[in-house]
Amino acid sequence: RYTSQVEPFGPDECWLDVTDSLSLFGSGQKIADELRETVKRETGLTLSVGVSFNKTFAKMGSDLKKPDATSVVSRENFRRVLWPLPVSDMLMVGKKSVQKLHALNIFTVGDLARADESLLSAHFGITGVRLKRNANGEDDETVHEVGEKEDEKSMGQGMTAARDITSYEDAETLILYLADKVATRLRKASLRGYGVSLSMRAADLTSFVRQKMLTNPTCTARHIADAAKELLHANWKCDYPLRTLTVSVYDLTKIGAVQMDMFAAPPDKTEKLESAIDAIRDKYGETAIMRAGIFGLDFIVDKK
Q1: Range ranked top by mean pLDDT from 156-160, 223-227, 268-272, 288-292
Q2: Residues 7, 13, 34, 148: which is the catalytic one?
Q3: Residues contacting 301, CB < 8 A, separation 6+
Q4: What angle do CA 238, 244, 249 make, to 5 degrees?
Q5: Catalytic site residue 145?
Q6: What is the DSSP secondary structure assignment for residue 27, as one 8-state letter?
């Protein structure tokens, strides 16, 4: 009713960009108040709304007062309103990140905003730099139109094995199989990723995720698998059986839009080789070329 730029965020939240609607409906706060009253009248539900000049602060503002309120976070007041909050209130900061930030003496959103960028980059990679900039009000992500396909933020492939995985050899084989699937999808979408994550779920259904940033972005199964294997060996000692593994690549960027490190080793031929395999599979089917190591294995249930 107020804008066509409506982007979902989770099951019960969304962002609205009402910039072009202000001349019709009034200020952002006025629109927010009208929305709250309309929703309450028509559905009986209450809303908490954050009004701000970017997505990060709008979301954080919506959490300031509940269950039925409008909070305005402006360019003039965000330091006073948001910087005293605990860093755990910062959008996209999870429990593990909070622990790491506390170890760096970063306890509030203001501490994060004032933190040394090189320090954050060393501990969190590009994500740390982005968090600092967001804390300073520099989030410039746009709100998508209704029905607009959002750019991929990550790509992953998981599999629940047909039996428990109890050895590094079996886990590494499954990782390589999953990395091949992810890499193929990345190349077809003309994407590379700066980060690799490995999700491990044990037979008792407990699970955890570990991540690793790369020096240069990749779209090859070899480099994705190498990073995932490092995460496996650093976090699993074969001391309990695994049932599900998921390999994901995140912080994606379009191929051709990447500034490579001038001091890094020249790229190898892996990407060209895997692209050639893609072409063969496209012509003759996915099973035309497969890794020999997966044949005869009883825990990979879908060799396609």
Answers
A1: 223-227
A2: 13
A3: 159, 160, 161, 162
A4: 100
A5: no
A6: -
